[in-house]
Amino acid sequence: MRHEVLVIGGGPVGLTLALLLARQGVRVAVIEKDRVPAHAPSAVSLDDECLRIWQACGLERDIEKDWDGGQHGGVMCEYLDAKGKPFLRLTQQDSDLGYPHAVAVHLAGITEKLREQAEHNQSIDFLAGNQVIGVDQDEHGVRVLCRSDNDSVHTVCGSWAVACDGSNSVTRGLLGIAMPGITLPNKWLIAELEDNRRRESVQIHCDPSRPSVTVPMPHGVRRIERMLAYDDDGAWLGDETMVRRRLKSAWAGASEAPILSKTILRFNARIAERWRCGRVFLAGDAAHQTPPFAGQGLATGLRDASNLAFKIAGVRHGWLSEEVFDTYEIERRPHQERMIRLALRLGGVMSPRSRVQAFFTQSMIRAMMMLGPIRRHVQLRGPGIRPILHDGFLEHGGLAGQYLPQPWVTVGGNRRVRFDQLLGSRMTWIALGTAGSPGDLHGSRCSSDDTALVENLDFTDPDRQLQRRFGEGSLLLVRPDRFIHTHRTTAATSVPLTRNTKWITKQHPLSGPSPFGAVSA
Asked: Which superfamily is assigned to 70-98+185-266+352-386 in CATH?
Protein backbone atom coordinates (compact mmCIF):
# COMPACT_ATOMS: atom_id res chain seq x y z
CA MET A 1 0.00 0.00 0.00
CA ARG A 2 1.33 3.43 -0.91
CA HIS A 3 0.52 6.66 0.95
CA GLU A 4 2.08 10.08 1.27
CA VAL A 5 2.53 10.01 5.06
CA LEU A 6 2.60 7.05 7.46
CA VAL A 7 1.56 7.96 11.00
CA ILE A 8 2.70 5.21 13.37
CA GLY A 9 0.46 5.21 16.43
CA GLY A 10 -3.25 5.95 16.68
CA GLY A 11 -3.27 7.83 19.97
CA PRO A 12 -4.37 11.47 20.31
CA VAL A 13 -1.12 12.88 18.88
CA GLY A 14 -1.06 10.56 15.88
CA LEU A 15 -4.75 11.05 15.15
CA THR A 16 -4.43 14.84 15.44
CA LEU A 17 -1.51 14.82 13.02
CA ALA A 18 -3.42 12.62 10.57
CA LEU A 19 -6.48 14.89 10.62
CA LEU A 20 -4.40 18.04 10.16
CA LEU A 21 -2.62 16.47 7.18
CA ALA A 22 -5.87 15.24 5.66
CA ARG A 23 -7.39 18.72 5.88
CA GLN A 24 -4.43 19.95 3.81
CA GLY A 25 -5.03 17.35 1.12
CA VAL A 26 -2.38 14.82 2.13
CA ARG A 27 -3.07 11.09 1.90
CA VAL A 28 -2.32 9.39 5.25
CA ALA A 29 -2.15 5.90 6.69
CA VAL A 30 -2.46 5.53 10.48
CA ILE A 31 -0.80 2.30 11.66
CA GLU A 32 -2.16 1.27 15.06
CA LYS A 33 -1.43 -1.97 16.91
CA ASP A 34 -4.71 -2.06 18.90
CA ARG A 35 -8.12 -2.58 17.36
CA VAL A 36 -9.82 -1.31 20.51
CA PRO A 37 -8.22 1.67 22.30
CA ALA A 38 -6.41 0.53 25.42
CA HIS A 39 -7.59 2.14 28.67
CA ALA A 40 -4.39 3.60 30.10
CA PRO A 41 -3.66 6.65 32.27
CA SER A 42 -3.72 9.72 30.08
CA ALA A 43 -3.71 13.49 30.30
CA VAL A 44 -6.44 15.09 32.41
CA SER A 45 -5.46 18.75 31.96
CA LEU A 46 -4.85 20.70 28.75
CA ASP A 47 -4.69 24.32 27.68
CA ASP A 48 -6.07 26.81 25.18
CA GLU A 49 -3.48 25.92 22.54
CA CYS A 50 -4.63 22.30 22.46
CA LEU A 51 -8.29 23.25 22.06
CA ARG A 52 -7.31 25.55 19.20
CA ILE A 53 -5.41 22.72 17.48
CA TRP A 54 -8.42 20.41 17.77
CA GLN A 55 -10.56 23.24 16.40
CA ALA A 56 -8.26 23.15 13.35
CA CYS A 57 -9.10 19.44 13.06
CA GLY A 58 -12.81 20.28 12.85
CA LEU A 59 -13.59 18.96 16.35
CA GLU A 60 -14.66 22.15 18.09
CA ARG A 61 -18.33 21.18 18.49
CA ASP A 62 -17.78 17.43 18.81
CA ILE A 63 -15.62 17.64 21.95
CA GLU A 64 -17.25 20.55 23.78
CA LYS A 65 -18.75 18.20 26.39
CA ASP A 66 -15.44 16.40 26.91
CA TRP A 67 -13.69 19.37 28.53
CA ASP A 68 -14.58 21.71 31.39
CA GLY A 69 -12.91 25.02 32.18
CA GLY A 70 -15.03 26.00 35.16
CA GLN A 71 -16.14 29.58 35.64
CA HIS A 72 -14.24 32.65 34.51
CA GLY A 73 -12.52 34.14 37.57
CA GLY A 74 -13.12 31.00 39.64
CA VAL A 75 -10.43 28.97 41.36
CA MET A 76 -9.25 26.24 39.02
CA CYS A 77 -6.36 24.84 41.07
CA GLU A 78 -5.26 24.92 44.71
CA TYR A 79 -1.91 23.93 46.21
CA LEU A 80 -2.46 22.80 49.81
CA ASP A 81 -0.02 22.32 52.68
CA ALA A 82 0.08 19.32 55.03
CA LYS A 83 -2.78 20.82 57.07
CA GLY A 84 -4.98 21.24 54.00
CA LYS A 85 -4.61 25.03 53.89
CA PRO A 86 -4.04 26.62 50.45
CA PHE A 87 -0.76 28.47 49.88
CA LEU A 88 -1.32 29.03 46.15
CA ARG A 89 -4.56 29.51 44.23
CA LEU A 90 -4.76 29.80 40.44
CA THR A 91 -7.86 31.37 38.94
CA GLN A 92 -9.44 30.70 35.56
CA GLN A 93 -9.16 33.30 32.80
CA ASP A 94 -10.28 33.33 29.19
CA SER A 95 -7.26 33.58 26.92
CA ASP A 96 -6.65 35.54 23.75
CA LEU A 97 -6.99 32.25 21.86
CA GLY A 98 -10.72 32.12 22.49
CA TYR A 99 -10.68 29.37 25.15
CA PRO A 100 -10.02 29.10 28.90
CA HIS A 101 -6.35 29.02 29.85
CA ALA A 102 -6.67 25.52 31.36
CA VAL A 103 -9.34 22.83 31.20
CA ALA A 104 -9.94 19.39 32.66
CA VAL A 105 -10.49 16.85 29.90
CA HIS A 106 -11.93 13.38 29.47
CA LEU A 107 -9.28 12.28 27.01
CA ALA A 108 -10.84 8.88 26.31
CA GLY A 109 -13.93 10.64 24.95
CA ILE A 110 -11.86 13.03 22.84
CA THR A 111 -9.69 10.21 21.49
CA GLU A 112 -12.81 8.28 20.51
CA LYS A 113 -14.02 11.26 18.48
CA LEU A 114 -10.59 11.74 16.90
CA ARG A 115 -10.62 8.10 15.88
CA GLU A 116 -14.15 8.29 14.46
CA GLN A 117 -13.17 11.29 12.35
CA ALA A 118 -10.05 9.50 11.09
CA GLU A 119 -11.93 6.31 10.23
CA HIS A 120 -14.51 8.26 8.21
CA ASN A 121 -12.04 10.58 6.47
CA GLN A 122 -11.51 9.61 2.82
CA SER A 123 -7.89 10.84 2.94
CA ILE A 124 -7.01 8.58 5.89
CA ASP A 125 -6.60 4.80 5.91
CA PHE A 126 -6.86 3.61 9.52
CA LEU A 127 -4.92 0.35 9.73
CA ALA A 128 -5.79 -1.09 13.15
CA GLY A 129 -4.37 -4.35 14.43
CA ASN A 130 -0.90 -3.80 12.93
CA GLN A 131 2.30 -3.96 14.95
CA VAL A 132 5.36 -2.31 13.42
CA ILE A 133 8.30 -4.73 13.23
CA GLY A 134 10.60 -3.01 10.76
CA VAL A 135 11.38 0.38 9.19
CA ASP A 136 13.44 0.93 6.05
CA GLN A 137 13.94 4.02 3.90
CA ASP A 138 15.81 5.48 0.96
CA GLU A 139 15.81 8.82 -0.88
CA HIS A 140 12.39 8.05 -2.37
CA GLY A 141 10.37 7.01 0.67
CA VAL A 142 9.77 4.88 3.76
CA ARG A 143 8.73 1.25 4.03
CA VAL A 144 7.16 0.05 7.28
CA LEU A 145 6.93 -3.70 7.87
CA CYS A 146 3.85 -4.67 9.90
CA ARG A 147 2.57 -7.85 11.51
CA SER A 148 -1.21 -7.93 11.72
CA ASP A 149 -3.09 -9.55 14.57
CA ASN A 150 -3.71 -12.61 12.37
CA ASP A 151 0.11 -13.02 12.07
CA SER A 152 0.31 -12.01 8.41
CA VAL A 153 3.21 -9.72 7.47
CA HIS A 154 2.92 -6.89 4.96
CA THR A 155 4.57 -3.60 4.00
CA VAL A 156 3.08 -0.11 4.01
CA CYS A 157 4.94 2.52 1.97
CA GLY A 158 4.93 6.30 2.09
CA SER A 159 6.97 9.35 1.28
CA TRP A 160 7.44 10.18 4.98
CA ALA A 161 6.65 8.58 8.33
CA VAL A 162 5.98 10.08 11.76
CA ALA A 163 6.37 7.92 14.86
CA CYS A 164 3.69 8.81 17.41
CA ASP A 165 3.87 5.42 19.13
CA GLY A 166 4.43 6.55 22.68
CA SER A 167 7.11 6.48 25.33
CA ASN A 168 8.11 2.90 24.51
CA SER A 169 8.29 3.73 20.80
CA VAL A 170 9.13 0.67 18.72
CA THR A 171 9.99 2.94 15.81
CA ARG A 172 12.51 4.93 17.85
CA GLY A 173 14.14 1.68 18.89
CA LEU A 174 14.30 0.39 15.31
CA LEU A 175 15.98 3.65 14.26
CA GLY A 176 18.54 3.34 17.05
CA ILE A 177 17.74 6.75 18.57
CA ALA A 178 18.69 7.05 22.25
CA MET A 179 16.41 8.65 24.85
CA PRO A 180 18.63 10.23 27.54
CA GLY A 181 17.19 11.72 30.70
CA ILE A 182 16.00 10.58 34.10
CA THR A 183 13.31 8.43 35.63
CA LEU A 184 11.98 9.87 38.89
CA PRO A 185 12.59 7.54 41.84
CA ASN A 186 9.13 7.32 43.39
CA LYS A 187 6.23 5.40 41.93
CA TRP A 188 2.74 6.89 41.78
CA LEU A 189 -0.63 5.20 42.17
CA ILE A 190 -2.93 6.46 39.39
CA ALA A 191 -6.65 5.74 39.71
CA GLU A 192 -9.91 6.91 38.19
CA LEU A 193 -13.14 6.70 40.16
CA GLU A 194 -16.79 7.51 39.59
CA ASP A 195 -17.71 10.90 40.99
CA ASN A 196 -20.95 12.67 40.06
CA ARG A 197 -20.66 15.41 42.65
CA ARG A 198 -20.59 19.10 41.81
CA ARG A 199 -17.34 19.99 40.09
CA GLU A 200 -14.68 21.62 42.25
CA SER A 201 -11.13 22.82 41.72
CA VAL A 202 -8.09 20.65 41.20
CA GLN A 203 -6.42 20.06 44.55
CA ILE A 204 -2.71 19.37 44.93
CA HIS A 205 -1.75 18.15 48.41
CA CYS A 206 1.91 19.07 48.97
CA ASP A 207 2.39 16.93 52.07
CA PRO A 208 5.94 15.49 52.24
CA SER A 209 4.63 12.19 53.63
CA ARG A 210 1.86 11.66 51.06
CA PRO A 211 1.81 14.04 48.08
CA SER A 212 -1.28 13.63 45.92
CA VAL A 213 -3.40 15.25 43.22
CA THR A 214 -7.14 14.98 42.71
CA VAL A 215 -8.74 16.18 39.47
CA PRO A 216 -12.52 16.28 38.83
CA MET A 217 -13.04 15.37 35.16
CA PRO A 218 -16.03 15.58 32.80
CA HIS A 219 -18.52 12.69 32.58
CA GLY A 220 -18.51 12.02 36.33
CA VAL A 221 -14.92 10.82 36.68
CA ARG A 222 -12.27 11.80 39.22
CA ARG A 223 -8.55 11.18 38.76
CA ILE A 224 -6.39 10.61 41.85
CA GLU A 225 -2.61 10.46 41.72
CA ARG A 226 -0.75 9.61 44.93
CA MET A 227 2.99 9.25 45.38
CA LEU A 228 4.15 6.01 46.99
CA ALA A 229 7.10 5.42 49.26
CA TYR A 230 10.42 4.82 47.51
CA ASP A 231 10.52 1.16 48.60
CA ASP A 232 6.83 0.40 47.89
CA ASP A 233 6.76 -2.34 45.24
CA GLY A 234 3.01 -2.05 44.60
CA ALA A 235 2.36 -5.75 45.19
CA TRP A 236 -0.94 -4.79 46.88
CA LEU A 237 -2.46 -3.32 43.67
CA GLY A 238 -4.84 -6.26 43.30
CA ASP A 239 -6.26 -5.71 46.80
CA GLU A 240 -9.04 -3.12 46.51
CA THR A 241 -9.01 -2.42 50.26
CA MET A 242 -5.32 -1.53 50.15
CA VAL A 243 -5.86 0.65 47.10
CA ARG A 244 -8.70 2.58 48.76
CA ARG A 245 -6.63 3.05 51.90
CA ARG A 246 -4.02 4.94 49.91
CA LEU A 247 -6.53 6.91 47.83
CA LYS A 248 -8.48 8.15 50.87
CA SER A 249 -5.56 10.35 51.92
CA ALA A 250 -6.18 12.38 48.74
CA TRP A 251 -9.97 12.26 48.60
CA ALA A 252 -12.32 11.06 51.33
CA GLY A 253 -14.86 9.86 48.76
CA ALA A 254 -12.45 7.15 47.65
CA SER A 255 -13.67 4.92 50.47
CA GLU A 256 -16.93 4.24 48.60
CA ALA A 257 -16.70 5.46 44.98
CA PRO A 258 -16.45 2.71 42.35
CA ILE A 259 -12.89 2.37 41.01
CA LEU A 260 -12.82 2.47 37.20
CA SER A 261 -9.10 1.86 36.72
CA LYS A 262 -5.86 1.74 38.67
CA THR A 263 -2.19 1.35 37.88
CA ILE A 264 1.26 2.25 39.17
CA LEU A 265 3.69 4.37 37.16
CA ARG A 266 7.05 6.07 37.32
CA PHE A 267 7.47 9.40 35.56
CA ASN A 268 10.21 10.23 33.09
CA ALA A 269 11.97 13.42 32.04
CA ARG A 270 13.62 12.47 28.76
CA ILE A 271 14.24 13.87 25.27
CA ALA A 272 15.34 11.86 22.25
CA GLU A 273 18.80 12.67 20.93
CA ARG A 274 17.26 13.60 17.59
CA TRP A 275 13.71 13.92 16.32
CA ARG A 276 14.38 13.06 12.71
CA CYS A 277 16.11 10.22 10.90
CA GLY A 278 15.96 10.86 7.15
CA ARG A 279 12.30 10.69 6.17
CA VAL A 280 11.11 9.51 9.60
CA PHE A 281 10.16 11.96 12.37
CA LEU A 282 9.43 11.46 16.06
CA ALA A 283 6.54 13.28 17.77
CA GLY A 284 4.85 13.25 21.16
CA ASP A 285 6.09 10.79 23.78
CA ALA A 286 8.21 9.05 21.16
CA ALA A 287 10.33 12.23 21.04
CA HIS A 288 10.05 13.49 24.64
CA GLN A 289 8.56 12.51 27.97
CA THR A 290 7.50 15.07 30.57
CA PRO A 291 6.45 14.48 34.18
CA PRO A 292 2.78 15.40 34.60
CA PHE A 293 3.25 18.07 37.27
CA ALA A 294 2.77 20.97 34.80
CA GLY A 295 0.06 19.26 32.76
CA GLN A 296 2.14 19.66 29.60
CA GLY A 297 2.78 16.08 28.46
CA LEU A 298 0.08 15.73 25.81
CA ALA A 299 0.08 19.45 25.05
CA THR A 300 3.67 19.29 23.84
CA GLY A 301 2.82 16.37 21.55
CA LEU A 302 -0.09 18.25 20.01
CA ARG A 303 2.23 21.19 19.36
CA ASP A 304 4.56 18.77 17.56
CA ALA A 305 1.69 17.63 15.36
CA SER A 306 0.63 21.17 14.50
CA ASN A 307 4.20 22.21 13.68
CA LEU A 308 4.99 19.19 11.54
CA ALA A 309 1.68 18.86 9.67
CA PHE A 310 1.87 22.07 7.66
CA LYS A 311 5.54 21.55 6.83
CA ILE A 312 4.89 18.09 5.39
CA ALA A 313 1.88 19.42 3.50
CA GLY A 314 3.89 22.37 2.20
CA VAL A 315 6.66 20.14 0.88
CA ARG A 316 4.14 17.69 -0.57
CA HIS A 317 2.28 20.44 -2.46
CA GLY A 318 5.43 22.29 -3.52
CA TRP A 319 5.10 25.59 -1.64
CA LEU A 320 7.91 24.68 0.76
CA SER A 321 11.21 22.93 0.09
CA GLU A 322 12.44 19.96 2.11
CA GLU A 323 14.96 22.09 4.03
CA VAL A 324 12.02 23.32 6.12
CA PHE A 325 12.06 19.94 7.90
CA ASP A 326 15.27 21.02 9.62
CA THR A 327 13.27 23.65 11.51
CA TYR A 328 10.99 21.11 13.22
CA GLU A 329 13.34 20.25 16.06
CA ILE A 330 14.90 23.74 16.05
CA GLU A 331 11.50 25.22 16.85
CA ARG A 332 10.09 22.56 19.15
CA ARG A 333 13.04 21.33 21.28
CA PRO A 334 13.77 24.57 23.24
CA HIS A 335 10.17 24.88 24.41
CA GLN A 336 10.00 21.20 25.27
CA GLU A 337 13.13 21.49 27.39
CA ARG A 338 11.56 24.46 29.17
CA MET A 339 8.39 22.49 29.88
CA ILE A 340 10.40 19.63 31.39
CA ARG A 341 12.27 22.07 33.65
CA LEU A 342 8.94 23.63 34.70
CA ALA A 343 7.46 20.21 35.46
CA LEU A 344 10.45 19.22 37.59
CA ARG A 345 10.28 22.48 39.55
CA LEU A 346 6.57 22.03 40.19
CA GLY A 347 7.23 18.43 41.15
CA GLY A 348 9.58 19.74 43.84
CA VAL A 349 6.82 22.01 45.16
CA MET A 350 4.25 19.20 45.09
CA SER A 351 6.43 16.57 46.74
CA PRO A 352 8.93 18.31 49.05
CA ARG A 353 11.62 16.04 50.49
CA SER A 354 11.09 17.14 54.09
CA ARG A 355 8.78 19.21 56.26
CA VAL A 356 11.51 21.83 56.60
CA GLN A 357 11.74 22.21 52.81
CA ALA A 358 7.94 22.28 52.58
CA PHE A 359 7.73 25.03 55.21
CA PHE A 360 10.25 27.34 53.55
CA THR A 361 8.96 26.74 50.00
CA GLN A 362 5.32 27.22 50.89
CA SER A 363 6.04 30.26 53.11
CA MET A 364 7.94 31.91 50.28
CA ILE A 365 5.10 31.28 47.81
CA ARG A 366 2.54 32.64 50.30
CA ALA A 367 4.60 35.81 50.67
CA MET A 368 4.97 36.21 46.91
CA MET A 369 1.22 35.83 46.40
CA MET A 370 0.62 38.81 48.71
CA LEU A 371 2.31 41.03 46.13
CA GLY A 372 -0.17 42.02 43.42
CA PRO A 373 2.25 42.32 40.47
CA ILE A 374 3.76 38.91 41.18
CA ARG A 375 0.37 37.29 41.78
CA ARG A 376 -0.88 38.53 38.40
CA HIS A 377 2.12 37.06 36.60
CA VAL A 378 2.04 33.60 38.18
CA GLN A 379 0.65 31.46 35.38
CA LEU A 380 0.89 27.76 34.73
CA ARG A 381 -1.12 28.12 31.54
CA GLY A 382 -1.59 30.75 28.85
CA PRO A 383 1.00 33.31 27.71
CA GLY A 384 3.35 32.48 30.61
CA ILE A 385 4.27 29.12 29.08
CA ARG A 386 3.32 29.66 25.45
CA PRO A 387 6.05 28.93 22.86
CA ILE A 388 7.86 31.85 21.25
CA LEU A 389 10.02 30.97 18.25
CA HIS A 390 13.42 32.64 18.02
CA ASP A 391 14.83 30.56 15.16
CA GLY A 392 13.39 28.42 12.42
CA PHE A 393 10.86 29.09 9.70
CA LEU A 394 10.29 32.81 10.21
CA GLU A 395 11.51 36.23 9.13
CA HIS A 396 13.28 37.86 12.07
CA GLY A 397 12.02 41.22 13.24
CA GLY A 398 9.05 42.71 15.02
CA LEU A 399 6.87 40.14 16.77
CA ALA A 400 7.62 37.29 14.35
CA GLY A 401 7.69 33.97 16.17
CA GLN A 402 4.78 34.78 18.47
CA TYR A 403 1.42 33.06 18.48
CA LEU A 404 -1.48 34.75 16.70
CA PRO A 405 -4.47 35.59 18.95
CA GLN A 406 -7.87 34.28 17.93
CA PRO A 407 -10.42 37.00 18.62
CA TRP A 408 -14.08 36.81 17.75
CA VAL A 409 -14.37 38.96 14.63
CA THR A 410 -17.29 40.28 12.61
CA VAL A 411 -17.74 39.47 8.92
CA GLY A 412 -20.51 40.16 6.45
CA GLY A 413 -21.97 42.95 8.51
CA ASN A 414 -22.80 41.31 11.83
CA ARG A 415 -21.86 37.61 11.74
CA ARG A 416 -19.40 36.69 14.54
CA VAL A 417 -16.83 33.95 13.89
CA ARG A 418 -13.58 32.79 15.39
CA PHE A 419 -10.74 34.43 13.49
CA ASP A 420 -9.14 31.10 12.49
CA GLN A 421 -12.20 30.33 10.36
CA LEU A 422 -11.05 33.05 7.97
CA LEU A 423 -7.42 31.97 7.64
CA GLY A 424 -6.15 30.05 4.61
CA SER A 425 -4.83 26.51 4.67
CA ARG A 426 -1.39 27.76 3.62
CA MET A 427 0.19 31.08 4.62
CA THR A 428 -2.18 34.01 5.20
CA TRP A 429 -1.40 37.73 4.84
CA ILE A 430 -3.24 39.94 7.33
CA ALA A 431 -3.27 43.74 7.01
CA LEU A 432 -4.42 45.67 10.06
CA GLY A 433 -6.12 49.00 9.39
CA THR A 434 -5.33 52.36 10.93
CA ALA A 435 -7.98 54.58 12.50
CA GLY A 436 -10.82 52.60 10.95
CA SER A 437 -9.29 52.47 7.46
CA PRO A 438 -8.46 49.26 5.57
CA GLY A 439 -4.86 48.05 5.56
CA ASP A 440 -2.59 48.27 2.55
CA LEU A 441 -3.46 45.11 0.65
CA HIS A 442 -4.86 46.02 -2.75
CA GLY A 443 -7.42 43.99 -4.64
CA SER A 444 -11.05 43.01 -4.55
CA ARG A 445 -12.89 41.66 -1.56
CA CYS A 446 -11.54 38.32 -0.31
CA SER A 447 -13.28 35.14 -1.35
CA SER A 448 -13.10 31.91 0.63
CA ASP A 449 -10.09 30.78 -1.43
CA ASP A 450 -8.01 33.93 -0.96
CA THR A 451 -4.98 34.11 1.28
CA ALA A 452 -5.11 37.76 2.29
CA LEU A 453 -7.36 39.43 4.86
CA VAL A 454 -7.78 43.17 5.32
CA GLU A 455 -9.21 44.57 8.54
CA ASN A 456 -12.27 46.78 8.04
CA LEU A 457 -12.64 45.37 4.54
CA ASP A 458 -12.85 41.60 5.11
CA PHE A 459 -13.28 41.49 8.88
CA THR A 460 -13.66 43.73 11.92
CA ASP A 461 -11.93 43.09 15.23
CA PRO A 462 -14.30 44.89 17.64
CA ASP A 463 -12.11 44.35 20.71
CA ARG A 464 -8.97 45.44 18.82
CA GLN A 465 -6.97 42.46 20.08
CA LEU A 466 -4.84 42.33 16.95
CA GLN A 467 -4.02 46.03 16.95
CA ARG A 468 -3.11 45.99 20.63
CA ARG A 469 -0.75 43.08 20.08
CA PHE A 470 0.87 44.00 16.76
CA GLY A 471 0.16 47.72 16.27
CA GLU A 472 -2.11 49.59 13.89
CA GLY A 473 -1.13 49.37 10.25
CA SER A 474 0.84 46.15 10.75
CA LEU A 475 1.25 43.55 8.05
CA LEU A 476 1.44 39.91 9.17
CA LEU A 477 2.22 36.68 7.39
CA VAL A 478 0.73 33.84 9.44
CA ARG A 479 1.74 30.19 9.23
CA PRO A 480 -0.89 27.42 9.21
CA ASP A 481 0.06 26.55 12.81
CA ARG A 482 -0.88 30.16 13.71
CA PHE A 483 2.63 31.41 14.45
CA ILE A 484 3.66 34.74 12.98
CA HIS A 485 6.17 34.24 10.15
CA THR A 486 6.53 37.93 9.25
CA HIS A 487 5.61 41.08 11.15
CA ARG A 488 6.06 44.43 9.44
CA THR A 489 5.02 47.33 11.59
CA THR A 490 3.70 49.73 8.93
CA ALA A 491 1.71 48.25 6.07
CA ALA A 492 1.55 51.61 4.33
CA THR A 493 5.31 51.57 3.68
CA SER A 494 5.45 48.01 2.40
CA VAL A 495 5.28 47.00 -1.23
CA PRO A 496 1.59 46.56 -2.15
CA LEU A 497 0.59 42.90 -2.39
CA THR A 498 -2.05 41.37 -4.57
CA ARG A 499 -4.13 38.40 -3.56
CA ASN A 500 -2.86 36.26 -6.39
CA THR A 501 -0.79 33.50 -4.81
CA LYS A 502 1.52 33.02 -7.82
CA TRP A 503 2.18 36.75 -8.06
CA ILE A 504 3.17 36.89 -4.40
CA THR A 505 5.46 33.91 -4.92
CA LYS A 506 7.28 35.39 -7.89
CA GLN A 507 7.41 39.05 -6.97
CA HIS A 508 7.49 39.09 -3.18
CA PRO A 509 9.67 36.34 -1.76
CA LEU A 510 10.45 36.88 1.89
CA SER A 511 13.32 39.26 2.39
CA GLY A 512 16.84 37.93 1.93
CA PRO A 513 18.03 34.58 0.63
CA SER A 514 16.15 31.72 2.22
CA PRO A 515 16.94 27.99 2.34
CA PHE A 516 13.19 27.38 2.11
CA GLY A 517 12.84 28.90 -1.33
CA ALA A 518 10.19 31.45 -2.25
CA VAL A 519 7.30 30.84 0.11
CA SER A 520 3.88 31.44 -1.37
CA ALA A 521 0.90 32.43 0.66
From this structure: D-Amino Acid Oxidase, subunit A, domain 2 (3.30.9.10)
